[in-house]
Design goal:
The complex is a heterodimer. Chain A is mainly beta. Helices cover 0% and strands 51% of the residues of chain A. In chain B, the strands form 2 sheets. In chain B, strands 2, 4, 5, 6, 9, 10 and 11 form a 7-stranded mixed sheet that branches. Chain B is globular, with a radius of gyration of 13 Å. Classes of the chains: A mainly beta, B mainly beta.
């Protein structure tokens, strides 16, 4: 079945450090890929997405590139801030499955001063 | 516009009691999803509706769980009887299927504690 695997957290970084959160997927069809972010006490919200191979999604300084050859969608940011502390979820949606998303387990990011 | 509204935000109950969680999706959205989030299992899809019809309930853990969507603006998730292992945060999410954005809009969640 379809699945998403994320690196385990927590990831602890100092402010202005470079961030990478790894995400790989297994899918029987042609998925769209997403990163969602969950701030403390809140629901998930969409951070960025990519709908086909080699697409790059970007938002708020975060980027991720859809790599079909490695079935990956790693999240990166060049300089993290304390306000980026949250849980990040990688997710996929198979075309034609009516917006049903399959999520990874989430990676907690803690950014310190 | 109001987002997805869930109630209650927090619920503490005793084992064996009935629990009802409520969700009001974003107006105009035609698909609604119930997710459960725990530390051990992460985010699990329990059930989703399209145009008020349950499409996939394979994630509902057992017969103690039931969900309804009597109209486009309201859904409930009921647990009867509740057990301590049901303690989790339950999220409702909605989307306009066909808009092709894939963006689910989540509520703030209902944190359930079963003692």
């Amino acid at each position: 079945g379809d699945s998403v695997t994320q690196m385990e957290g927590p990831v602890t970084l100092s402010e202005e450090a470079f961030l990478t959160i790894n995400c790989t997927y297994t899918a029987t069809g042609y998925p769209s890929l997403f990163w969602y972010v969950q701030y403390p006490g809140e629901g998930l919200q969409l951070l960025l997405k990519a709908t086909k191979a080699d697409d790059k999604g970007s938002n708020k300084g975060f980027e991720a590139t859809y790599r079909k050859e490695t079935t990956s969608f790693h999240l990166e940011k060049g300089s993290v801030q304390v306000s980026d502390s949250a849980v990040y979820f990688c997710a996929l949606r198979i075309t034609g499955t009516a917006s049903k998303l399959t999520f990874g387990t989430g990676t907690r990011l803690q950014v310190t001063l | 516009d109001a987002g997805v509204i869930q109630s209650p935000r927090h619920e503490v109950t005793e084992m064996g009691q009935e629990v009802t969680l409520r969700c009001k999706p974003i107006s105009g959205h035609n698909s609604l999803f119930w997710y459960r989030q725990t530390m051990m299992r992460g985010l699990e899809l329990l059930i989703y509706f399209n145009n008020n019809v349950p499409i996939d309930d394979s994630g509902m853990p057992e017969d103690r769980f039931s969900a309804k969507m009597p109209n486009a603006s309201f859904s409930t998730l009921k647990i009867q009887p509740s057990e301590p292992r049901d303690s989790a945060v339950y999220f409702c999410a909605s989307v306009l299927t066909g808009a092709n954005t894939g963006e689910l809009f989540f509520g703030e969640g209902s944190r359930l504690t079963v003692l």
